[in-house]
Design goal:
- The protein is globular, with a radius of gyration of 24 Å.
- The chain has 18 helices and 19 strands.
- A nine-stranded mixed beta sheet has the order 15-16-14-13-12-11-10-7-17, with helices on both faces.
- Helix 4 crosses helix 6 and helix 7 packs parallel to helix 8.
- The chain folds into three domains: 106 residues, Double Stranded RNA Binding Domain (2-Layer Sandwich), CATH 3.30.160; 55 residues; 322 residues, Aldolase class I (TIM Barrel, Alpha-Beta Barrel), CATH 3.20.20.70.
Length: 497
């Protein structure tokens, strides 16, 4: 197949849609994208706009000029057109390309043409455009964006929950992320930059000392400019992969050195049951009321062995009971849909076991596929796993109903590239237990200070969003720490506001 672009260069946008349907998408050459697929080798897809539009026009929300966008498959009845304003051009080009390819291949994804990380933003925009009428919004998502009904409903419901949470946040105050890129073992599906803590030994202590220095110096500056944190999240990796002593030092630094608002939310990813000790729970309890995460991912021992997690289901139960014994009253537990060898029923069994435990939060992730690992020998399997999967989709729908029936409501939602079945990740919480850090971080409306190796920081200034990154390499992070800290202070200085 050849895709011919007329009067625009939205290669990346169209390629993003093409990759939903085809494995090999070529580069743009002279306005043409080549797609390697023998079944459709003779076909030509035209994507055209009425006249060329500059990037400045596309970024200008005030420009209400209507521009005709047309797409069609040559020598067929498949065509679509619409008039949109410049700021909506990119979304419309993707929408039209998705419509043509889904009609051509008879492949339809749960979220339709919404390929972005935050489909709830489109849902909420539609809600406003449809005069805050929920039924009309859902119909718009189904008819114009090709979202299946179940996802249109959960997308809008979650969008409204996100907006409600954001309305209670202070946009001028930052949130804090503290990263610990270590785990006791590496899960086979993991795409994060983590290292096995068991092989590092003394390097963990060196990392803790560097992290503490970054915490202290960056915190001192933010206290100086009166910018306390309204939410703190310590994640990884697995923060509890640190030694008891190292972990306790970080908890003390959070309590004594980090400026916090009166009702600052603190979340600590306790994570893997095999890394949690009574001493670590005691250290966490030194903080004010704290959310913790205990993440089994599955409640099947055979799957835990398959994915390389060095703990059992029984360890999950023991750790959960230990957390309750330490009087933790806000616990999140994660499950992953689509793990290797698991069916939809296997996933629903795991969910039932978590519901019996009755944590305050349950987060459902869909397994993301590591492209490089699959493509080495299993290219066809990789593509097949990305295609819509009715069994997994149905299991997700059943899970949502079960969670809502037991008092959990969705409060944030995001999607990743290359996930099984084109599905999503959703956080559910009982009343009063939603994680405001998750919502604020995903919204791109709240600045986030990232500390630790591999962490990212983002500064929100009106409509502008800027990011800087800490080095992923541990030696580089420790060796350049003074420079890293000063760069971060400069980045968040009031002169840049």
């Amino acid at each position: 197949m050849r895709v011919i672009l007329e009067n625009h260069q939205e290669y990346q946008s169209i390629a993003e849609i093409l990759r939903l349907f085809f494995l090999e998408v070529g580069k743009l050459e002279s306005g043409v994208i080549l797609v390697a697929d023998s079944e459709y080798s003779d076909m030509v897809l035209f994507s055209a706009i009425e006249y060329e539009v500059s990037l400045e026009q596309m970024r200008n929300q005030a420009d209400q000029t209507e521009i005709l966008v047309q797409s069609q498959i040559a020598d067929s009845d498949l065509s679509i057109s619409a008039k949109v304003i410049p700021s909506a051009l990119r979304r419309e080009i993707k929408r039209q390309t998705y419509f043509l390819l889904s009609e051509l291949t008879d492949i339809r994804y749960p979220w339709g043409s919404l390929t972005g990380v935050r489909p709830t933003q489109i849902a909420y925009r539609s809600f406003l455009e449809n005069e805050q009428n929920k039924n009309r919004t859902i119909q718009d998502l189904i008819e114009n964006w090709y979202v299946i009904p179940e996802k249109a409903e959960i997308g809008l419901k979650t969008a409204l929950a996100e907006v409600a949470i954001l309305s209670d946040l202070q946009p001028e105050l930052p949130m804090l992320y503290i990263g610990v890129p270590f785990c006791t073992t590496r899960c086979s599906y993991c795409s994060f930059i983590t290292q096995d803590s068991i092989n590092l030994g003394a390097e963990l202590d060196i990392y803790v000392e560097a992290l503490l220095q970054e915490i202290v110096e960056v915190s001192d500056y933010l206290r100086q400019i009166n910018k306390p944190f309204q939410a703190i999240y310590m994640g990884g990796g697995t923060p509890t992969a640190l030694s008891d002593q190292g972990f306790a030092k970080v908890m003390t630094a959070i309590k004594e050195r980090i400026p916090q608002t009166k009702n600052c939310e603190i979340t600590i990813e306790a994570g893997r049951p095999d890394s949690i000790t009574p001493a670590k729970f005691t250290a966490i309890k030194e903080l004010s009321e704290t959310r913790i995460c205990i993440n089994p991912q599955t409640m099947h021992d055979r799957t835990l062995r398959t994915i390389g997690r060095d703990h059992s289901v029984e360890n999950v139960y023991q750790t959960y009971q230990l957390a309750r014994a330490h009087q933790f009253s806000s616990i999140n537990m994660d499950l992953i849909l689509g793990l290797p060898g698991e069916t939809g029923d296997d996933f629903l069994y795991s969910l039932e076991k978590l519901l019996e435990l009755d944590p305050e939060n349950i987060t459902i992730h869909t397994m993301a596929l590591k492209r490089s690992a699959f493509l080495q020998q299993h290219a066809e399997q990789y593509l097949k796993l990305r295609f819509p999967d009715p069994e997994l989709s149905d299991a997700f729908t059943v899970a949502i109903r079960k969670l809502e029936k037991q008092g959990y409501q969705p409060y944030y939602l995001y999607r990743q590239k290359n996930v099984r079945g084109g599905l999503e990740n959703i956080g559910f919480a009982k009343s009063g237990h939603a994680c405001i850090y998750n919502v604020g971080m995903m919204s791109d409306r709240i600045s986030v200070v990232g500390l630790g190796s591999g962490s990212s920081s983002k500064r929100v200034n009106g409509d502008r969003l800027e990011r800087i990154y800490n080095p992923k390499d541990l030696t580089n992070y420790v060796g350049r720490l003074t420079e890293i800290i000063q760069r971060k202070i400069d980045f968040f200085s009031e002169s840049n506001s």
